[in-house]
Amino acid sequence: MSETSTNHCDIADISLAEEGERRVKWAERSMPVLRQIRKRMSEERPFEGVKMSACLHVTTETANLMETLKAGGADVVLCASNPLSTQDDVAAYLVDRCDVGVFAVNGEDNDVYYDHVRSAIAHGPMVTMDDGADVVGALHMIALDRLDDLHPVISNWVSSLTDEERSSILGNVLGSTEETTTGIIRLRAMAADGVLQFPVIGVNDSFTKHLFDNRYGTGQSTLDGILRATNMLLAGATVVVAGYGWCGRGVAMRARGAGAKVIVTEIDPLRALEATMDGFPVMPMAEAAPLGDLFITLTGNRDVVREEHFRLMKEGAMVANSGHFDVEVDLTGLKKISSGPRPLRPFVEGYELDGKEVVILGEGRLINLAAAEGHPASVMDMSFANQALAAEYLLSDVGRGLSKDVHRLPMEVDREIARLKLIGMGIEVDGLTAQQEHYLSSWDQGT
Ligand code: NAD
Ligand code: ADE
Questions:
Q1: Residue 12 contacts by C-beta under 8 Å, 6 or more apart in sequence?
Q2: Which of 117, 128, 205, 439 has its CA 20 to 30 A from that of 389?
């Protein structure tokens, strides 16, 4: 049953490996924390004999994580966590030069996407690494015998297995790590329903992940994707940001910095209040719809922009999504009321309705990874340091004793990643004096 890194892969073009290597090495320069972890792991080999399956965006930054896991001794395979985000040269580099089994082809259709997830599961991992919980979700559907809820490519494969092979699929897994907000929401729902079968480390819960990756990474790379796709001018444009969470705050901040008039939509009163006091007009989407030149969804929710909103939009209004799944913009609803899509540029398609054209970017999929390269390496350095350390933690004695729930990495690990990042950036900070330490731990030193 096992598909190992050495005997199997499905990638676009192995001859791209050299170009991939150049780009992966370029990213590595901006990943000092991961470099340091890789060096330690190559000496300590914490993953010796450990099979891992990762389902992540196949980018230069992810390649650096894969090399770190390999340096630690892992037998790792990688599949894509989105059909449009794969960098084919990186996939070729990992297969050709790093002995990582990669199952990812840019632009793959749904059947191929799930066949690649299937290959990751068939590797027989002890640790899985998800960005959106696709591997863990499928593993649980198999465990719960809910084959009808699986893509047929996976359910047909499961049906062909012996009982022993089937039960060993889940039996091998010690735990998992999850990269993103949406994945963690899914996993917490599984834990609440009492169906989660092993511990998961919610990497997104680390401060060194969501404070930086979601805010500064998404803030910059979302606009990067939109600019590469459209070459639009942000100065003077009205940009509607749906969702004022970690990602939305970052995008709103960067769009304002580029001279856009930013409007925020929210459903949470606290976040709506925060956006208001940060100086953004806040209103329902139905009020924002006629005003926006560009709409960006970052909510983790579905149908945030839908039929009633499309009908209210101006001629040429553009709509992009940077939330995890392609459900935030209701394209199915749009297709019912419009004619299109009409290709306008790569990643840009027009839909005609009510005598105007609404423009959808990147098919409503994460625009920063579809039309650009995702977050810069400098921020993924911290996200993927968390991933490598989360895998190590799951295999430690403490990790092996964790309950079947979603956990965060210990605070001291989070702080250590921040400390290493500061060193990498050449920034020094003060330490406490003895008096300060005493003052902070006392209750009778008030004046
Ligand atoms: P978050 O929970 O911090 O913020 C989401 C916000 O959206 C919340 O404030 C919520 O109240 C709001 N919201 C929910 N439904 C809404 C609706 N109908 N209208 C308006 N607002 C609504 O989450 P986050 O960390 O900001 O992540 C947002 C999404 O982006 C998730 O899907 C996450 O997985 C994804 N993500 C993408 C990238 C990327 O590279 N593009 C990176 C990190 C996270
Ligand atoms: N998510 C957002 N940006 C990313 C990147 N550059 N690599 C992997 N996952 C990402």
A1: 86, 88, 91, 92, 105, 106
A2: 117
Atom of ligand 1 nearest to the CA of 249: 26
Residue carrying the six token digits 């911290």: 382
Tell me: do 32 and 179 sit in the same domain.
yes
Residue 390 CA: distances (Å) to CA of 94, 136, 394, 395: 22, 16, 6, 9
The pLDDT value given to residue 167: 87
Whether residue 231 sits in one domain with residue 142: no
Q: Are 87 and 106 in contact (CB under 8 A)?
A: yes
Write the pLDDT tens digit of every residue in 277-309. 999 999 999 999 999 999 999 999 999 999 999
The residue contributing the CA closest to ligand 1 atom 8 is 245
Token pair belonging to 80: 């894509």
pTM of the model: 0.96
442 found inside a domain: no
CATH number of domain containing 241: 3.40.50.720
Residue 431: half-sphere exposure toward Cβ, Cα within 13 Å: 3
Q: How far is the CA of 332 from the centre of ligand 1 (A)?
A: 21
Distance from the CA of 405 to the center of ligand 1, in angstroms? 22
The count of structural domains within the chain is 2
Please list the alpha-helical segments (H only) found in 6-75: 17-29, 32-44, 60-71
- Residue having the nearest C-alpha atom to atom 12 of ligand 1: 243
Do 87 and 182 belong together in one domain?
A: yes
Place of tokens 């050299």: 18
Q: How far apart are the first and last CA of the chain?
A: 69
Q: How far is the centre of ligand 2, averaged over its atoms, from the C-alpha of 372 (Å)?
A: 10
Task: Name the residue of 55, 85, 134, 180 whose CB sits within 8 Å of the most ligand 1 atoms, as the mutation to test its pocket.
Answer: 180
Summarised one tens digit per residue, pLDDT across range 327-344 is: 999 999 999 999 989 999
Torsion angles phi and psi, residue 265, rounded to 5: -115, 145
The CA distances from residue 182 to 186, 214, 300, 401, in Å, are 6, 12, 6, 26
Provide the b/e sequence for 426-436 (b: ≥16 CB within 10 Å).
eeeeeeeeeee
- Alpha carbons 164 and 396: distance in angstroms, whole number: 28
Q: Give the bridge partners for 101, in sequence order.
A: 77
